[in-house]
């Protein structure tokens, strides 16, 4: 595959992606504005978005530089792998604890704790000590669990219980959050690159830039958010077991959790695979990453348009898995070592399609979690969902590196494609299940006259 390069193809692909993202965003927002013109709701969205976007921005600032920082400090690949695995293990081990703690002691408090813990995690990157960096990875794993469960739990409670807005409006919030998450990722990449090049800290700079955004996010939460709670009567151990028991007893929650674990583990495996797959084509990594984020933005706008045309989230979830599975199966073909180098561009286009499915997925799964998971155990159950996801991701990556086969990436793409098909079958079964409504849903069905 030597001699074939991707930069021109990627540059040409980015132009229609930018146009498509802009046009679809305008169409998606028009559909949203036609349905929702409630100023109070729009103000409530801003109260949620400002600190949440600060948290996401700080997370995106760091992501591309974690591996580079460890290499900069001179750690061999084996020790870097240990640091990564510790981060995933911390998310699995401590993640199940943060949910019940948030439900019991307050989701606002836990969101503030996230900002402070993640800021301290960033500061550990100033040290080249392996043990201190190890502590940083543990703190990072804990912080990630909070970011991707507690913030959403706070929002859903305020939306459904405090303000009693129509449950359909949640989709508008999650779609907008997914779109701007992609935009923030692009901006964060530019800021991180500029900081790394211009500031004296080198690859430590993005981590230092993230700290003030986390502090501002904490101050905004303290000032603007009301406190809300989940299950408060049980002790911590009882609350943890209650969350797991609820998942196992409720077929809707169990099915949704399985779909989430399969989809997101495939997504994280893709994050580790795309760079080595395209590496021989010498792609401009910043531009390639930006094109992926544009694809996510396109997906989020398509979700809004589909929803406005009457598609149900349960059906859209099936579309996500079909598109993801098809993309992985194309990659399983295009990454065959015996195929011509031109097939590398086919892999890139499959990656773009896969990222569109990711943009469709996040607002969809957010809406379905809001409808399906009981509020009193929301953060608890959401963190339990992340346990199999982390286990599958770690198992897949460790297995791929352990066997070190020339076709390892191809086999992994095939497995991800097959697991996406399994996810589709579960999502299809989920769509046919009778929905067991929670208390807040019963309220909302009679109070849509906001």
TrEMBL record:
One Gene Ontology molecular-function label: molybdate ion transmembrane transporter activity
Record flagged with keyword Transport: yes
InterPro entries documented for this protein: MFS_trans_sf, MOT2/MFSD5
Keywords: Cell membrane, Ion transport, Membrane, Transmembrane, Transmembrane helix, Transport
Membrane topology designation: Multi-pass membrane protein
GO biological process, one term: monoatomic ion transport
Source organism, top-level taxon: Eukaryota
Pfam families (UniProt xref): MFS_5 (PF05631)
GO cellular component: plasma membrane
UniProt signal peptide: none
Cellular localization per UniProt: Cell membrane
Segments passing through the bilayer: 6-26, 47-67, 79-98, 110-128, 134-156, 177-194, 200-222, 253-275, 287-307, 319-339, 345-363, 384-403, 409-427
Functional description taken from the UniProt entry: Mediates high-affinity intracellular uptake of the rare oligo-element molybdenum.
Descriptive protein name: Molybdate-anion transporter
Natural source organism: Folsomia candida
């Amino acid at each position: 595959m030597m001699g074939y390069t991707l930069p021109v193809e990627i540059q040409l692909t980015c132009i229609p992606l930018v146009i498509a993202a802009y046009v679809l965003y305008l169409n998606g927002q028009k559909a949203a504005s036609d349905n929702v013109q409630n100023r109070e709701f729009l103000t409530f969205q801003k109260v949620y978005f400002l600190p949440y976007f600060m948290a996401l921005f700080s997370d995106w600032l760091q992501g591309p530089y974690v591996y580079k920082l460890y290499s900069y400090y001179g750690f061999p690949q084996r020790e870097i792998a240990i640091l990564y695995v510790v981060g995933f293990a911390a998310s699995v081990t401590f993640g199940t604890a943060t949910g019940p703690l948030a439900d019991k002691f307050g989701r606002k408090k836990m969101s503030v704790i996230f900002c402070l813990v993640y800021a301290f995690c960033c500061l550990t990157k100033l040290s080249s000590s392996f043990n201190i960096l190890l502590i940083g990875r543990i703190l990072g794993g804990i912080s990630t669990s909070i970011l991707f469960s507690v913030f959403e739990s706070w929002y859903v409670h305020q939306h459904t219980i405090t303000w009693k807005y129509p449950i359909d409006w949640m989709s508008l919030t999650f779609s907008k959050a997914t779109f701007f998450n992609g935009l923030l990722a692009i901006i964060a990449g530019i800021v991180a690159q500029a900081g790394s090049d211009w500031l004296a800290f080198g690859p430590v700079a993005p981590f230092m830039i993230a700290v003030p955004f986390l502090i501002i996010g904490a101050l905004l939460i303290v000032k603007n958010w009301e406190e809300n709670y989940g299950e408060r009567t049980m002790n911590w151990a009882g609350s943890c077991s209650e969350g797991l028991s609820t998942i196992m007893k409720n077929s809707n929650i169990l099915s949704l959790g399985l779909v989430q674990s399969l989809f997101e583990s495939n997504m994280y495996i893709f994050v580790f695979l795309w760079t080595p797959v395209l590496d021989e084509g010498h792609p401009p990594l910043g531009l390639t990453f930006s094109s992926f984020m544009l694809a996510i933005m396109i997906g989020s706008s398509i979700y809004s348009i589909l929803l406005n045309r009457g598609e149900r989230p349960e059906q859209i979830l099936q579309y996500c898995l079909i598109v993801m599975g098809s993309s992985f199966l194309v990659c399983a073909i295009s990454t065959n070592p015996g195929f011509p180098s031109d097939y590398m561009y086919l892999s890139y286009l499959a990656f773009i399609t896969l990222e569109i499915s990711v943009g469709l997925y996040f607002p969809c799964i957010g809406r379905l979690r809001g409808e399906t998971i009981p509020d009193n155990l929301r953060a608890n159950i959401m963190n339990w969902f992340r346990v199999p996801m982390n286990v599958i991701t770690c198992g897949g990556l460790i297995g791929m590196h352990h066997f070190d086969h020339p076709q390892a990436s191809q086999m992994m793409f095939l497995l991800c494609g097959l697991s996406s098909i399994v996810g589709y079958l579960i999502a299809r079964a989920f769509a046919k299940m009778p929905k067991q409504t929670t208390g807040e849903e019963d309220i909302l069905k009679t109070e849509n006259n906001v």
